[in-house]
Amino acid sequence: MIKVTVWNEYRHEKKSETVRQLYPDGIHGAIAGALKADDDFIVRTATLDEPDQGLPDKVLNDTDVLIWWGHMAHGEVDDALVERIAVRVRGGMGIIVLHSGHFSKIFKKLTGTSGSLKWRDGDSCRVWVVNPSHPIAQGIGESIELPEEEMYGEPFGIPEPDELVFVSWFGGGEVFRSGCCFKVERGRMFYFQPGHETNTAFHNEKVKTVLRNACKWAAPAGEIIDSSGCEWRKVPTGEVK
Ligand code: ZN
Fold first, then answer.
1. Distance from the CA of 98 to the center of ligand 1, in angstroms?
2. 132 domain residue, yes or no
3. pLDDT (tens digit, 9 = 90+) per residue, 63-116?
4. Strand, coil or helix: what is 128?
5. How many other CB atoms sit within 10 Å of the CB of residue 189?
6. How close is the Cα of 199 to the center of ligand 1, in Å?
7. Closest CA to 92 of 199, 174, 183, 204
8. What is the extent of the structural domain holding 195?
9. CATH number, domain containing residue 32
């Protein structure tokens, strides 16, 4: 069983009737619903305005894969929490950063880059599979067609992904590296572009499949260690057998 915690800042849904109608249970509720369709997952949700911003130690330390959706409140996420998440990812926890999470503190910390990109309001979007044998692309076919999604365009301020699974094309002609895998020490991180709050991506069956596949891909293969104390040490000559 894979323990997944779906974290959402959960602000747009409270402020906008349009968003609330699209996601009556919150974006986190829609994502959790997609995961609960698979018996391999134990699913929890967490939101920014909960105590400890939804992620006290007892939750974070009991999470195999963390899903992150944030947008308007990136700056409110405590730096100490961001550090605790980073330590856990380096120790082996998986993390899936969605859509506007490209500007979240945790994504910028784990990539070491700006996460910058071009954007424009609603456009048609086709998410092309460019790595059909990758575990995250299974069951998707050639592409995912989204009638409307916020346009994200290159150049995307990230390190070269270890594996590229999807490239999106938009009606305006732009392209974007929309499904990117990164190894973060013992942990795995996947960035996925669809998921603007006024569009319907998290109701799309293929997007739901990507989320389930990504959680399985990012799940730790072994023990998650506490990486806060590093193994930096002087080794006497001859100790290695
Ligand atoms: Zn957006």
1. 10
2. no
3. 999 999 999 999 999 999 999 999 999 999 999 999 999 999 999 999 999 999
4. strand
5. 25
6. 9
7. 183
8. 2-115+180-218
9. 3.40.50.880
Evaluate whether residue 157 is within a structural domain: no
The pair of three-digit structure tokens given for residue 6, joined into one six-digit string: 């779906």
User: What string of DSSP letters covers 141-190?
Assistant: -SEEEEEEEEEEESPP-SPPPSEEEEEEEETTS-EEEEEEEEEETTEEEE
What separation in Å is there between the alpha carbon of 223 and the centre of ligand 1? 35
Q: Are 158 and 206 in contact (CB under 8 A)?
A: no
Length of the chain: 241
- Expressed in angstroms and rounded, the spacing between residue 35 Cα and the centre of ligand 1 is 22
Q: How far does the centroid of ligand 1 lie from the alpha carbon of residue 212, in Å?
A: 21
| Amino acid type, 45 | T
Query: What's the pLDDT tens digit per position in 180-209?
Result: 999 999 999 999 999 999 999 999 999 999
| Cα 178 to Cα 191: distance, rounded to the nearest angstrom | 7
Examine residue 125 and state whether it is found in any structural domain, yes or no: no
Whole-structure pTM value: 0.96
Number of structural domains (the chain) is: 1
Give the pair of three-digit tokens for residue 173.
């002609």
